[in-house]
Design goal:
heterodimer; A: 184 residues; Rna Polymerase Sigma Factor, Chain: A; Arc Repressor Mutant, subunit A; 2 domains; globular; B: mainly alpha
């Protein structure tokens, strides 16, 4: 979304124009949902977090610094909300091991298969991404899909630039080794 | 080494792009917008003044009228009217009581604001809950 259009939508939303906010939601809902899902591995919880993120954004939009990027601000809220949700779940079930199955579980077996068909490619890649540690899944998505810089990712995740680079290096290596023989 | 990283980088970028984004359910947008609309209505009620500008104008006119009426009265104190109750003793007791204007203005203002506050705020409360 263009920055000037975004600024107009933000100003209108602050004045109470709900339709302007809807346009902001349309622009970012898939990315926010993807980030939440990649951390939580559960569609219902990811949708819940996504709704909470946009409610928080709506309520605190007046405090948004117009010099910053709206996307970075929204992704930071998403990252914090998702990680906090995982932490609270871990506290809740700290005596039992959390081993969530997700719809991609079937596609992340360690068996080295031959090259898979096109319709399975997406699921295989998602399965491999979901095998990475939570924070790394976010970093990989923001870096390769959203094409954010390491500095921006460090800002969103509150992790040092050096650490983001290390995590990026390890995740890239893992994904490459996992998928090189499965995906063309 | 760098060549390997570059090769991996291109490969993983292609994969992540191919994985594309997840999409929330069909109910997501209507449900979210419903919550946003409710929030907006609540915000409007919260920002709405309890007493409107017309209300304040009416209150002001009433208060000024009371003040003017009291100031225009010729004596500095206002006594109870000398009604002829059947209980002579009681009448004689209260006819000697006099109240200063300042006290009376204060008392009338207090009663007035108390009534206004109770009626308007309770009405607003029950309208929003």
């Amino acid at each position: 979304m263009e920055k000037t259009t975004e600024h107009i939508l933000i100003k209108n939303t602050i004045k109470g124009d709900v339709q302007s906010f809807k346009k902001i939601v349309i622009s970012y809902n898939m990315m926010v949902y993807t980030l939440a899902y990649r951390v939580l591995k559960n569609r219902e919880e990811a949708e819940e977090v996504t709704q909470d993120v946009f409610l928080k954004v709506y309520q605190s939009l007046h405090s948004f610094n117009m010099k910053s990027k709206l996307s970075t601000w929204i992704y930071r809220i998403t990252y914090n909300s998702s990680i906090n949700k995982v932490k609270s779940q871990k506290r809740q079930f700290e005596t039992t091991e959390i081993n969530r199955d997700n719809e991609y579980s079937a596609y992340i077996s360690d068996d080295t298969q031959n090259t898979i068909s096109d319709e399975e490619t997406r699921k295989t890649i998602n399965g491999a991404i979901l095998k990475l540690p939570e924070v790394d899944r976010i970093i990989i998505t923001l870096y390769y899909y959203e094409e954010l810089s390491v500095k921006e990712i460090a800002d969103i995740t509150s992790i040092s630039v050096q650490n983001v680079k290390i995590k990026l290096y390890r995740s890239r290596k893992k994904l490459f080794n996992e998928l090189k023989d499965k995906v063309n | 080494m760098n060549e390997d990283i570059h090769k991996e980088d291109i490969f993983v970028k292609k994969l992540v792009k191919e994985a594309s984004l997840e999409q929330p359910g069909d109910d997501f947008m209507p449900s979210l917008m419903d919550k946003i609309n409710k929030l907006e209505v609540e915000n409007n009620i919260a920002n709405e003044p309890i007493i409107s500008s017309k209300g304040w104008f009416t209150i002001g006119v009433i208060i000024v009228s009371i003040f003017v009426a009291l100031l225009l009265s010729d004596s500095s104190t206002i006594g109870f009217p000398d009604y002829n109750f059947s209980f002579d003793n009681i009448v004689s007791l209260y006819s000697s009581v006099s109240i200063s204007k300042v006290f009376l203005i204060g008392l009338v203002s207090f009663i007035f604001f108390f009534i206004v506050n109770i009626t308007i705020t309770t009405k607003k409360y029950f309208a929003t809950h």
